[in-house]
Every structure is written in structure tokens, then in C-alpha cells.
Known about the structure:
Elements: E1 18-20, H1 22-26, E2 29-30, E3 33-38, E4 41-44, H2 56-60, H3 68-74, H4 79-85, E5 89-93, H5 106-121, H6 129-153, H7 157-182, H8 190-204, H9 209-221, H10 243-250, H11 261-268, H12 273-288, H13 292-339, H14 354-361, E6 364-365, H15 369-374, H16 381-386, H17 395-408, E7 415-416, H18 418-442
Parallel strand pairs: 1-5, 6-7
Antiparallel strand pairs: 2-3, 3-4, 4-5
Helix pairs in contact: 5-17, 6-7, 7-8, 7-13, 8-13, 10-18, 11-18, 12-13, 13-18
Amino acid sequence: HNGGPGAVGSGRGGGNLSVFTWEEVQKHSHKGDQWLVIDRKVYNVTQWVKRHPGGIRVISHYAGEDATEAFTAFHPNLTFPRKFLKSLLIGELADTEPSQEAGKNAVVVQDFQALRERVEKEGLLRAKPLFFSLYLGHILLLEALSLGLLWHWGTSWSVTLLCSVILATSQSQAGWLQHDFGHLSVFKKSSWNHILHKFIIGHIKGASANWWNHRHFQHHAKPNVFCKDPDVNMLHLFVLGDSQPVEYGIKKLKYMPYNHQHKYFFLIGPPLLIPLYFQIEIMRTMVTRRDWVDLAWSMTFYLRYFCCYYPFFGFFGCIVFFTFVRFLESHWFVWVTQMSHLPMDIDHEKHHDWLTMQLNATCNIEQSPFNDWFSGHLNFQIEHHLFPTMPRHNYQAVAPLVQALCEKHHIPYQVKTLQGAFADIISSLKKSGDLWLDAYLHK
């Protein structure tokens, strides 16, 4: 593959490597024609995206861009993905070109790179197996406790309600634990992380590892960026941020009465996300992608669940009980996952550097033993977003270093109380709804 019209002279020292300007690289950012830059080397990933283990979309979101920081953040062992890069190399940036495209702050990039090197040197990317073993233990204990109570006390309303709360707790905590394995943050060997991830999300939760990875990595690659982060694709049910409501208002789009979205959020947000939307989407994804491995894993969950609870509730009762557990879990999941992102900056692609992009889209919640447990350490969402492969028990150690770096570059680092963060979800929905109404009526 030659450089085409954008090649500016011949490569030096690297054989016949073509040399490119940023202007040329940025032209290749469309479906069917995708280049990206890693460490000043230019790669044509057009064909490779379909084979990318993290999914097609996550890598496509960086087409035409410098992807060095994302590449480093997502892959725990860089020598492995670099093997695949060799065959995709088509050239390098011209000497006169900066290492990042305009809009990315080179000093911030260098300082964050230095912080990352320090984090690696201090062993903050190494996991404590005991922490994760005990964590899995407390989940299995809760699952067993629920069965034990029914077996011992019978299926009265009060016992059934207690068991559903216990199961919702174990399911929520299993959700935080599968997140650790999905990010490859527990074992050195990726394959071990993948196997345990399939066990926890498949057998303990009845969901799909590939569905979660392909969705969640996009969120990490471009948090709160419309058309790239699936978590801000609200299917016209809500309008988010400051720009989308105005766009909808000017176009006179009224799929829902958005000025009331802070009220109907309570009806269709927390109660329905997991039992309705995720339940359908997960099953549909596994079948349409013909992901029989994940389907088999999730079937072991349903098999175990019905074997355990059928004797107590019968078939129909089992479905009602299961749906109620998912309904409770869904509230927990939605409030915790939205509190760090929904009140933050939500907009179209701005091509910021990694640190700036993640801090604009993310805030933290105060540290306390309860908050750590309740949120699966996602109260340190900033640290998690900057270092997605870092084991969660190390977030607290790296937080002061991140804070100092943000102060140096005048990047806001927000820490809220748990109640304050929950309240901000509603106030940001109200603010966006009001912006929509104003634009709808007057613009």
C-alpha cells in the first residue's frame, strides 16, 4: 500500500515507509477506509477491524486519529497486539508533524505518559488474587444464603422478599466483579481473565461476555461522545447534555415530553433497563451474532436457576421471582453507573487527549468502605477510566497522583457525595429538558 497523494517524500531509515501529514491521515476515517496512528506510525486497520477482539466499533472510533493513549490503556500486555500491528504498517508521520493531531495537548499527553510509567513501576497494575477470591466468595455465599433461607423457612412473602433482596445484592456485586475480569485487570494472562469473565457474566449472571465487552469498551474509548459511546444513545427517550436538547428542539423533535424527563426517568430508567432492555438486547445479540459459546454459558445460568428455584415457586413463579430480582438490581445498576457520567459533559466528538476527554466525562464519589462496596469501587470512576486495566483495590493509591496532575493542568477533578451525585442525575436531566423546551418553543 503506497501513501498516495498525501505521502510527502520517502521514509528514512525504515525501508520504503511512506511519510504522511495529519491532514492525509484524517481523510481515512470512514467505514471501509480507516487509518490510525500509534507512536507516530501509521496503520491501515480497514480489514483488521472485523477481527479485532475488542470489537469493530471501538477501534473504528479512533480512525483518522492518534490512538496511542487508547492502545496503551486497553491492552495489558502490549507485545501481543503489536505482533498484529506489524502487517498493518503503511508509513509514519512526517518529521515536521506533531505526535498528536491539533486539539490534543502535547504537554498533557507527555505528563500523563510519565504518570502511567510511574504507575507501572510502582506495581499498581498488579492485582491481589486474595481480594478477588474473597469477593467471588461473598457473591457465592449470598447466592447460597438465598436458597438456604427458602429451604429452611419456606416461601412466605417476607422470606421471598428477603431472598430477592439478597439475590439482587449478589447479582449486582457479580456485575461489578465481571467488570474487573472484562477489563483484564485480575490475571496476567488475558485468557484466564476471559474464562473467568465468561463464568461470572455467563453462569452467575446469565448475560454475554462479548456483548458486554463490545459495548463497554466503546464507552471507555469515547465516554459521553454521541454516536460513539453506546451509554449515551438514549433511543430518543431522553435528551442529554447541553447541545443535544437544543438540536432536538430546533428540529422540532418531540419523541417524548423531554421537559418532564427528570420525572419519567423514575418510571422507565432504573426499573426497566436490565429486566427489559438489556434482557432483550443480550439475547438478540447472542443469536444474531451466532455467539453460541456465550449463549451456552448463559443457558447454564438459567438451568441452575430453574433447578434451584422451581421446587419452591414452580415455573411461572420462578419467572416472576427472577424478574423482580432483575428489577431491584436494575435500580442499583442505573443509579451507580449514571452518577459518574450523566451530569458531566456530553457532546459530539471533540478530539481531546486521553486525560482531558476522560475528566470531562467523569466524576468521582467520596471514598468510604460502604461506597467502595456499593459501587464496586466505581466511586473512583476517574482512575478507572484513565487506567481501565488497573485492579480496583489500587484506585485509592493512584487517586492523589491523578488529582495533582489535573491541578497542574487546570483540569477539573470532581468528587461528590453519594447523595449529591444521585441528585445531580435528576437535576442534569431537568436542565437538558428545559433547554429542549426553550429551543422547541422559541428557536
